[in-house]
User: Fold Multidrug efflux SMR transporter from Kocuria gwangalliensis.
Amino acid sequence: MAWLILILSGMFEAVWAAALGASHGFKRLVPTLIFLMSLSLSMAGLAWAMTSLPTGTAYAVWVGIGATLTVIWGFVKGYERPTIVRVLLLVLLVGSVIGLKVVS
Assistant:
């Protein structure tokens, strides 16, 4: 159950990162509210998962999921250009997160 909560928390990390960018410095109400709600859910889920998972592994998985999804969102929205190197680095990041889960 902790792993599922951690994965969902990582997904909420990507949501708050995207909402933070869309808030334009907290000047837009709806993205700011989405940022605050998803940040709260993300942190609460991470904190809960860390009660039964090793801190370093939980944090690395949370960041890895959030970072990967945030970059993919940037690709989809056209904010970032997907290059072979970027995609390979994301694959490496995901592989590293999976590896941490396997060995913990």
